[in-house]
Structures are given as structure tokens and as C-alpha cells.
Amino acid sequence: VETKEEETKNDMEPERMVRVTFRIARETEFGQHLSIIGAHPILGEWDVAESVPMDWVEGCTWEVHLDLPHFELIEYKYVIRCGWGPSGDTLWQGGPNYMLATNQSLQLEVVDEWVQEVWPGDHPVVAATSAAVSIYAQEHPKPKHVVRKAESLLPEWAENAVFYQLYPLGFFGAPTLNDLAPTPVPRLAKLREYYGYFKDLGVTAVYFSPLFESDTHGYDTADYFQIDRRMGDVALFKEIVDELHSHGMRVVLDGVFNHTGRRHPAFVDVMEKGPHLSEYANWYTVGARPDDYEGWCEIPDEEHGFSYDCWEGHAMLPKLNHAEPAVREHIFEVARFWLKEIGVDGWRLDVAHEMSPDFWREFRTVCMEANPDCLLVGEMIHGNYNNWVGNDRLHSGTNYQ
User: What is the pTM of this model?
Assistant: First the structure.
């Protein structure tokens, strides 16, 4: 006889799940995305608003990874949605509903084909699919699956934050070129004139595009520990951060850690001494010939000349080698400084998709130790953002695609 203790123990046993990868190819237009929907609670119980968004992989291929219960016969379909609201346009896949038997498998991969033609509800195959699922449910009744809301590790302040983004060099009319004047020009101080405007807009966070010392547009960093002298200095920016905090606004900086400018001290050392003598040669990816790799650039010097990898062929943006421990530690020190010493609240990370997920795992650990409430948002232009976004990597991504 089963005891009450055994019943309680059985009730507490977690439901066994199967990891299922669904994949389908379907062309979409701008603003559209694919979702999977079905009768099971995990698939939204045929409610489009509760359908599960899929991730674009490449070309016209979409996929999603789901944990579904063992020994279930699950009916599902795909829909194309425009926008995320329940009133957005929706295009349902044609043909009969798909059926998936999870059985005792631990992992399944399903590759489906989009059917355009709409089949009537009284079509024999359509009717048979629904009947099979219904009979299976009657013969193998189970308690209704409770869908647990996914835990978000996004900082609470960022959940509903209203961001104001500004490009400081343009916002305050700074010169296009940095003339390296010995005295910084405190243009950042003009931001104080906008505090009331920000408050009226309901702004709760200010995101600054590149602010660090650079030669031109800000993305060609010369010194990660200094504010661009065309804007002011670190002391002034610290005042600005404290004042924004006093007005209830968080501060996020642009971290351009994929590449530097050619005036960064490490690259200057490589140019002056050549890769064979510079201790910083491994900070960048250098080569013997300028045609080793598409997008490489060249320093044409008879004695110290070399070729190097640069971002998308832009010679002024030599790419950092993140496999080099000294490079990683340099970037980590930068993150610690601005988070702990200056008190900023997070980072928007430039071309994050061009850097390995493992690097961002380390970066996240460093940032969370410096400020457990910080936000990390990566710029995502290519690829599946799930490679870089997760509870052990970046909190979120821009997902421009």
C-alpha cells in the first residue's frame, strides 16, 4: 500500500522533460518573426499571444529549443507574427497540424517544412490528427502542465527603464578631430541644462555613446580610462554621474572593446618597435602579408612594417586579440574602474557578436563583482543572439536584424 509519505514524495518529483529543437525554413519580411504554437500549455494552448517566439539562425531558417514533458503526444503549428502585441498581423501555416510524440527520448531534433495551402477542417488528415491527440489524452490522462515563468536576471531597474541615448561629440558640437589640446573643454557640463527635460520625458536612464579619449568619432579609442578631452575630464563626468543618480537616472556607457584606435598606447608601441620587438604585438592580430585575410590593413614601414586585422577594413580600427590574457585583463580593469570608481550602472557593448561568448562570460563575472546591479547590453548585428545573451553572459542584445 502506498503511504502518504510516498505520495508526497511522488508529488514532489520533478516532471521528466525532453529537450526538443524545432527548426523550419520560411522567408519573412522586415518586422516579421516566426513562432511555434500548439495545444500544450508550453506552446500557448493555441493563443497566438502566448505562442513561443523562434530565433532566426541564418538565411531563412528559424529554430527554438524547448523542454517538453515525456510521453506526450503534442499537436503544434507555426505562425508568422508581425510585432509582439496580440492585435498584430498573423499568418498561420497551412496544412494539417503537426504531431510530436516525445516518448522516452532525452533529446529530439525536428525539421519541418512550411505548408502554404490552407486545408479545411473536415479534411481527413486534419481531423485524424486532432482525433489522435484527443484519444491519447483520454487514454493517458495527466495533470495539466504548469508553465513556470522564466526567471529573469535583468536588473530590476532596467526592466521598465526609459533610456535617452545621446552621442556626446555631436550632441554638444565637439570638433570632428581631437587636436590633443592640453586643457580639456568641459562641454559635458552643458548636459545639466537637460536634466529637467529628461525628467519631463520620463527618462530613467541615460546611455552615452562613446565618451573615452579618441581621435575622431569615439569608436577609435586611444585611452579607455580618460574622458575625451573635447568633452571634459573624468572628474567632471563623475559629477555628472552623481547628479543624474540624484535625479533618479541610471548611467550606461558605450564599451568599444572589439577594437581600439591606432593611437592606443599598445598599438603605438607595435608601430614604433614592430611586432618582433613590441611586448604588445599579441594584443592585436598581426601577419606577414596584407592579403592574409579579407579586411586586413597594413603599416607600410620598411623597418617595422606589418599587416593587421582591422574592423571591417577600417585601418584606424585595429582589432584586439581577446585570446591574449593581457588584453582581457586590460578590458576588465576598464570595466571595474567605471563601475566601481565612477559609479556607472552598465555597458552597451559595441559589436558584441564579433567577440566570443566565453569572453562575455568572464566580462559578466567581473562586472557583477564590481556592481551586482549593473546592466550589460550587447550590440547584435549577425547571428543568433542566444549565443551571447544568457544568465551567464550578457543580459540582453540590440538584435538589429
Answer: 0.73
